[in-house]
Amino acid sequence: MKKLRKFLTIGVMVLSIIAMSGLTVNTAKAAAQAGDLIKMDGLSSVYYLGSDGKRYVFPSESVYFSWYADFSGVVTIPASELQTYPLGSNVTMRPGTKLVKITTDPSVYAVTPNGVLRKIQSEADAIALYGSNWNKIIVDVADSFFTNYTVGSPLPSGTYPAGTLLKNADNASIYYFDGTNYRLIASESAFNANRFSFNNVVTTTMTLTASGSSITGAETFSAPSGGVGSPITGSGLSLALSSQTPMSTSIPKNGVRVPFTKVNLTAASDGNVSINSITVKRIGLSSYNDVDKVWAEYNGNVIASKKSMNSNDEAILVFSPALNIPAGQTLGIDLVASLTGTGTGNIGLAVASASAVSATAASVTGSFPINGNLMSLIAYDVAKLAMTGMNVATSTIKVGDEKVDMGRFELGFNTSGGTAAKDVRLSSITLKNNGVEDLSKTTMNLYLEHAGNKVTSRYTVDGRFVTFFFNEGFDLLKDDGSKLFYVKGDIISKENTGLNSFVLELNKSTDLVAYEKSTGFGVNTYTTNSSTVLADAHQISIRTIEAGNVSISKKSTSPSDTTIVKGTDNVVLIANIRADEQVVADGMKIWYGSDATTATTTNQFENVRVFLNGVLLDSFDPSVSTTTLLTADIDSSISLNKGDNEVRVMVKAKSNATATSAFYAKILGTDVFTGFNAEYVVSGNSVATIGGSATGATFTVQGAALTTVRNDGYGNNKPVVAGSTDISFGKFTVKATNDEVKITSVSFGGNIGSTTATLASAISDMKLYVDGVQVGNTVDFGSSGANFSSLNVNIAKDTTKSLEIKGTIDSSAVTDSYFATVMTINAQDSRGTVISSGNTAQTTQFQVKASGTLTVEVGGDSPVDGLLVSKAMDQEVAQIKLTAVNDVANLSEINISNDEGVDADPRIAAIKLYDGSTLIDQFVPVNGAGKFTIANNTIVVPANGSKTLSVRLSLNNIENDATATNKTFQLQVESVKFKSSAGAEQTVTLDGQGGNPAVLTASTFIIRKTIPTVTYQALPDTLLNAGDKVIAKFTVTADANADVTVGRFTLLTSKTASATLATTTNTLKVNGANKAATAALDSDDLTITLASPEIVAAGTTKTFEVIATVGVSGTGSESITAKIVEDTPFDSLTGALTTDLDGNFAWSDGASISAYTWANGYNVPGLDTQTWTLSKN
Fold first, then answer.
1. Domain 1012-1175 is of which CATH architecture?
2. pLDDT given for residue 483 in this prediction
3. Which of 105, 336, 669, 775 is the most exposed place for a label (fewest CB within 10 A)?
4. What's the pTM?
């Protein structure tokens, strides 16, 4: 078999799959069909015959087996026929099976349909998509075959590539992601028809929902396809200065990270563009010597290596890998620089011309030169950091070690040159590994630690570089001194045999990204607290992985400590044994116990099974020991593959295992193969050293448990009314823990009410509800209570059910008697064991009342006194709040009247009752009164709860009738009728007689044809100086129903001792034009009477300005104020406007065509106005 495997490996390296000796293929036949795997008789190469009549080559074994499970489908055809099929391209890796990379570039790609590669941008992204063992599905592609693929845009974080098979852990359904839809695979036959493999199904935490059409049979994507290998190119690339480019500002001449220019790069819509380099030019009154390094960043990440500025004022930034811009998209990059500290004047960065850009685009365009804003160089001592305290002596670490110390460094302040320490915020630090190991393959869970706490939120690995991102707001304070940091992580493998696995260094001093808190200026890092030497290539640590020849570690998929149910079978340990080369042994040893030092309860378990790479090695029943842990020898020949080998340990808890029994297993490198002759297959040498260990989770048997709590919130002595039905006597939450629980019956004990207990004969029709659904029969409550039997209510493990008990209190129940009971749940676990704890709960105590009462009052948000516009609909005039005490109140009738009499009747089209937005009833008043009739169960006020209803008026219009305006409405509630829960009708009469509630009235409203609204306006000039000045300015807006006529208004004025106020000739302007009017100043009242009343048309607004002659003397603070004050009480006048109308604002509503209908400023919106003020200073 070894020869066959070697033969296959050699065959695929010559670009074809060899049909292995011993595998059955069909005999030679003619006329192969499209989709066949074909070979020529006498030739071992296997091809795929495409629908285009071409034969496609499998370039490697891994590519072939990504499409096919074996060679059983290969068809042998005559040589003459084979020669008629021209060669096509190489077949690419099947999407959704493997990740690929080339040996000369650390970038890892997912393969999508048509051989398009999508780069996975970080290790964190890969772990999120494929789990911690994502690197195990990577296949290296030879450089010569990498051209078979097309490199597309990077894969966005959290997005699976097209072609991926996905499922959720709690659901057996499998979906095929086609890049847009998650297509459900309808059946196993459909799965097999497309030659899918369960090994390629990814279990994701993302909730999957089927979209698009289901897959019911073989589809075209199941056929192998070849990549076109086309380069990334498009017809054009355009450059433009971004609107987000930094503004001109002052910067320290020794700045270490200064963003100068932001440039937008846009690829034409007909193709992707790859940018290889951009030449950046310095501009401004400065020298190239003032620039230390220049680089490019995207979203804060360095994407082009840092370059020095040459004497031509240029720095060539090279993108490695090339910067790819998808067709039709724009990418903004920042041009960033560090400065030497010697410069003066100003400086900027630019892209001078199209020739400065090296890209695959056919043309490069833009408004060149693209200049960033100039920054002024200033002498400012930016804080400096010092990196000290490293331990660069070589030390060893082992595969399987967790949270191991991989290096340390101390950060403090550098005060050379008199630079003062300042508070600094740490953002990130990038360390370079110059060792022989690949960080992405040999480590996981990397982080920085300070004072025993993890201080980084995440990390990324890019080739030799690892970047740690500090927690938000992590500061290095000048008053705190230095801080010591440890680089820590888990060692999961050893890939190389050389020494110095990890040699960590700060490659560039600016790779520590930090900023002054007060200025935001970037700071630099030096080698000591007083040195002037930058911390470039500043070594932190040297570590060598010492795995021996074989290493043991626990896999990330191994379970955590948990509780289990007796009789269940569980995986307790998943370990990995990694071998440098193939190893064989006669067996292996595992340890097991119930706690750290003993195996006291392990005999409560049975059938321990040990699997290696999915194959059962051996099984045993555990023993017991009260003093030590125990071991078991697995007597079965073992063969470890080169690389990773999974060991899985399973155990079953006995069906009668006692609670708290525990079991765990572990494998120790020190003795796993002791006495089992472990040796390397090739050399035959014994395996001398095995590093690491793997300790499984502790599985503890716990019997099912119930927790029962009352959660209805009912208070003690909760009132219930005799004669009420379906009373809720209690609500309970029941939780099952450790196992599924089945409720078989629920009983409620006899009445335990205190003092006078309600007779059992008065309690009936008991009903039990589970999650709102009645279960069992309706039963009576006897002297011993009530019992609900023959139930079958299942509560899943760690879930809850809601139980509620309802019943009826007979009308014969004694007033002020009491009722309470204890609920007992009879239940069993999944294995039929009775649960006897946590299964009881008591109801609150209920107090029987003969009847409930209803209180009626004006609602808290009921409108206040005001004016109503005729013809308006549904104007709210009152809110009625009804509160039911002890029992529900099912409203049937509300009688109301107008407390102001019958005069308003002709004005009222309807009086309406609303519950929220729902119209309940309406009527037209007769003799100022009427009633609302409410259908049964339309408005039910809950016991000890409230309901607020709205009363609204719809009004008739006033048509040329002076006597129809100024009608008044004030709601009075006469009585309310309602039914109790027992159906008895009751009436609440509100007349204050014979113990009845007091008369209930709401606010008073005056009905007018229209309403004005007065709005304060700011004065055009508030300076008090001698002359005619505007002392008041306001607008009058007429309601849309009719015009408003303004006849007179009065300003209440005041002035200081040295200020004077007098009338003037042109005292009033309306809409900026003089309006004839007389002004009379009586003490502090300035009255403006219009010679002819001003009409404000319906729905429009006019502006009024009052002018007076003012004066001022003296040197103090002098002022004059004015405002219009609301009138009270209401006054009206029909006919000519005379002083018989008392008030500060006289207006007519146009109720009559032949006569004015004046009213004063009572309840006019906007009155009082704000105060107008003229002041001297």
1. Sandwich (2.60)
2. 92
3. 105
4. 0.43
